[in-house]
Amino acid sequence: MSRSKETAIWSKARRPIALAAFPVILALAPPSIASPPTATPGVGPPLAALPFSFEPNVGQTDPRVKFLSRGRGVTLFVAPTETVFMTARSAVRMRLVGASATSEVQGVDPLPGRSHFLVGRDPARWRTDTPTFGRVRSRSVYPGVDLVHYGAQGRQLEYDFIVAPGADPGVIRLAFDGTDRLKLDHDGDLVLHVGATRLRLGAPRVYQASAEGRRAVAGAWRLEGRNTAGFRIGAYDTSQMLVIDPTVELATYVGGGGVDQAFGIALGADGSVFVTGNTTSVNFPTTLGSLASTARGGVDAFVVRLKADFTTAIYSTFLGGSGDDAGRSIAVDTAGNAYVTGFTTSADFPTTPGSVKPARPAGEAAGVADAFVVKLNPQGSAPVYSTYLGGTLSDVGLGIAIDTAGFAYVTGGTFSSDFPSFFAAQPFLGGDRDAFVTKLNPTGSLLVYSTFLGGLGTEVGNAITVDATGAAYVTGSTTCAAAPCSTVTDFPTTPGVASPLRPPGEAAGVTDVFVSKLDAVGSVVYSTYLGGTGADEGLGIVVDQLGNAIVTGGTASANFPVTSAFRAFTGTLEAFLTKLNTTASAVVFSRPVPTTSPSPLTGQSRDALPSAPSLALAIATDASERLYLAGSEFRGGAAQTDAVVIEFGPSGTSPSDEFFVGGAGDDFGFAIAVDGPGNNVFLAGQTTSVAGLATAGVVQPTFGGGVDGFVARMSGFNPPPEGGGGGGGRACVIATAAFGTPLAREVSVLRVFRDHILVRNAAGRALVAVYYRLSPPAARVIAKHETLRAITRAALSPAIAGAGFALARPRTAFVMFAVVWSALVALLVGLALARREAAARRAAFAATFLVALGLTLAAGLFGADPEPPGASRSQLAQVGGGAAASRIARRTSGADEPGVERYDVELDGFAGVPLAPGAARVRPTFHSGLLGYEVASDLADGILTADGFTVTDPKLTEAVGIAGGDRIVAINGYPPAGGAFASFLLMQRDPDRNTITVHLDRRGVRMERVIVVR
After folding, report:
1. Is the pTM of this model over 0.70?
2. Among 425-434, 636-645, 741-750, which range has the highest average pLDDT?
3. I need a labelling partner for 792 at 20 to 30 A (CA). Which of 783, 862, 911, 980 fits?
4. Residue 18 vs residues 496, 874, 920, 988, 991: alpha-carbon distances, Å
5. Four-residue CA torsion sign, 40, 41, 45, 50
6. % of residues, the chain, pLDDT over 70
7. Contacts of 322 (CB under 8 A, 6+ apart)
8. Across the chain, what does the average pLDDT equal?
9. Residue in 977, 1001, 986 with CA at minimum distance from that of residue 477
């Protein structure tokens, strides 16, 4: 494709992005764009933590509540014997078992602020000048025990139990209502499971204060039941006051009033957290003395260094010139120097004299992007070195790694035939776009080597890592330029690798993963394809101590390589995890990455078609070589995207429960870092969640506006093994024993049924609790005998089928359950009347149990929304002011491309179609219909099934040649839902991924639409 599209690659980067992943609609006009909100120059959100305040209840909520706090991400209600934590996802009630109902609740530490409640039309009911407090103290909740809630300056929301001299701390017992179960992890944290969400209460700090200071006392959580916990306290001086202090985990926003996106994260030797990305916010919160505390261009890169506890920014700086600049990856050395790569259109990007390329290439057109590499000093005040990296056409840096000597290794994509090459394994541009790999010396003054990496198609390097020998490992994507692809070896693979050729039957233009290893001087050690006949993308890579490369990304190939221990891929968009041996001659293991979302059509497990699209965008490893994946999952039923983190063992087994990170909006995980022991996992990304994400006391607890970056710290990924045969964790233990793995489709169906039906009411939760108390012994026996496993599988089959049907059609299932249960109860009662007394008693007991079970199921089913949660939500995104001018132009196809139509799309408008007040509903709504998943938006309506997306009303998509009745079968080689989702995510990282290929079927005739987004 010609480089005429260069001139507008930044048109989408200057506008806030409507963060939604739409099945087809996004791909037809991706991404939906708005003009940036006008920002007032000045000071941005404060980088110091604001005081956490409590307000007395003067009629604004339930009278049982004495004080409340409305912090970002959580609302806290304090009553004499209980505390309620309410987030956007859940509400958890912490009851003090056996506490005094007459406990006096008082505000402590008055704050200067006042609250006003002007609710309703009656001024007599208005409340003004209501005081606020820094702490709330509940006195004598137990004999001699007070409870204090507060927001610790520099930490987060906390609550302390103050035990008076001589009082007994053993009386403190906490019951957590609204949770599925409690669990202690290996760090001693108490984990509250609430559906797919976790609330983590840190291991308690227990101490006694005296004139000499604090003296630590041994203390830990003690589980006393499925939903009840207390404290174990070591020996202490009973004549002195004792303080028991549990805490919550950390998350902070990073951003101002515009669009802020965090794409890279790294950890310093001191535990500090480094983040890079890009921002349109002129009020992005920077620090004095940093390299650039004020914005210079429409889009600027940023680099932020946070203290380990997220309370303070050690530094925060813009990075860029008067054009547009974006950070994409970051690495940190032991001295605290940050190495950053990305891309810039600025002719005045702040480079340093003596660097490899201090000026843009001569003859480069204005507005064309170059990669950059910057080494920033530990204070963030000056670059150690800063250089451009590129030729006269577009170049982007997407991944960076460093070795122990301070050499920097960079990868990305280039269209420039004059990209700087030196000691190159491939000194020339192979096709339209190539990946590149460049190694710089510690001062940035010399290229150790710099090479193209690509064939006749299109390639990009997405991620890079380096081993102890200085060898670089790169992954990315490569396309075949012309069919038949399986006979074309244009990408430079090496002999003896696992996949030297593309899969047979792959179409031209479909992406495959590549994995390449270069030695310390840039010679290719090995290079291999990885993938199937669908679209595949390599997005993250790490290397173990032996030199085995572990790769992750996304695939739509049902024949993507999989090892025997794992299920096959489904052909929908799924994340993958693959490990190659040291020579890439064999796959050590390869597997799909399980997610918790059910199928949107049937309510079946993630193994069914079509499943919720998920993409792993980054991978990290700890000292024990456990693997941690970060990415995003589009939950189609909720029309919502969540950032996710999941852990695997070194051999790819034992995936942890999935951690969802975010709030009520759309949350995307782009980068991950892990400390050495694996105690803490750090995630960076972007969010539209104005609440439900940040914790109190962090550097930025409030949402800046538009789109914000975020950083989250999680722990507890490595709990001790749970007892019970046949598995544990969140899986159904009997079904796990019968089917052999908690990842089996049948187990997933039962788990989703439990989470979406049973636990929605108190009776269901009680039933689940009884099951988990009684089932482990039976599971242990079943797991040991194949005959029992077969019998159990057969016995569970009707329940699994019924659970799947209930998830897909809850109201219909309610009627059916009522009829079946009524008939069963009538039959048992009839039998009881016809038999002797003992049998009658047993039958009556059985009937009572079945009635209770039936009522429980009915309550869950009747409470289930016939549409998936959040289905009615929509999001408005600005796409231009007033009537949109025509911005879609059809281009003539080349003679070698029969039937292919190309369209250039300007995102400010849609072919002259006026949009009601300059906005369109770009997030679709979903409804589970009889024919499939019905999708509606202002761009197009249709029905999504496993066979594709059938357009019922093309609306604005008519402008790109899509008509009613067309069935879209693929977007960029992925099934429709996954193709839109993947296209959206990849365009966020890489502005040169702006070509979308839509394959559609029009009454049996296959057509192709190529949309070039400007």
Report:
1. no
2. 425-434
3. 862
4. 46, 11, 10, 12, 16
5. negative
6. 68
7. 296, 297, 346, 347, 348
8. 76
9. 986
